[in-house]
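Board notes (copied after class):
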Amino acid sequence: MARPLILVSCWRRELPTYLSDRTRLETLDPAYAERVSDAGGQPLLASRPPAAAHESVAQLIELVDGVLLTGGGDVVPASYGAERENVQDDDAEADEFELALIAAARTAALPTLAICRGAQLLAIAHGGRLTQRPPASDGHSELEGLAGDAILAARHPVTLAASSRVARALGVETAPVNTIHHHQIADPGELEVTGRSPGGVIEAIEPRTDWACVGVQWHPEKMGEPEQRGLFDQLVAATRGRYRRAAA
């Protein structure tokens, strides 16, 4: 049986190569694709067009069976009506493209998992907003100056709403998670908050409808805890019985 196709967003960065010190490249932690593959899906890495084109978004959504929105730079504050205060690596074209993906996935009711930046965009797409200066408490501190191993190893607890999609995915109602984000969700808009860390920081959001969609502020693909794979299992499982290549 063919595997369901899961669109995986990339992030464009300028990195040194033999061509230039600032070569524009699409980048992605391979753990995202590995987790999708382990869950039984076929990851399809999507590079955005030169200018975000809604016709290309419609074509992508028609092609795939699910969507995984990944991490990346900060969202442009203007997209949620705020002034710039503390912004790094923002890209307005990336925001436009991924917000269009969210809108199209919602209309098509495609199963969706939104991680970190992806969850922030999910909130914005539903009328929410972000804070550009997360509180330096309860495990949420500035990452600048910390060693990579320290960032990856740090954990703080998250309490999940009983019977929520995220709780069903992880199989628990309290879980340790990592902190690898610069901004965070301040207002989920129309979405329901289904996970918070101590101090009330929003960690998980999901629609109040039947749309199989979950957004998490942490990075489950970078965690070794087995329950975190449940988010990817849930994403792929939600495509079963509906994806177009099931009988291929």
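Comment from the instructor: The first helix runs from residue 30 to 38. The mean pLDDT is 91.
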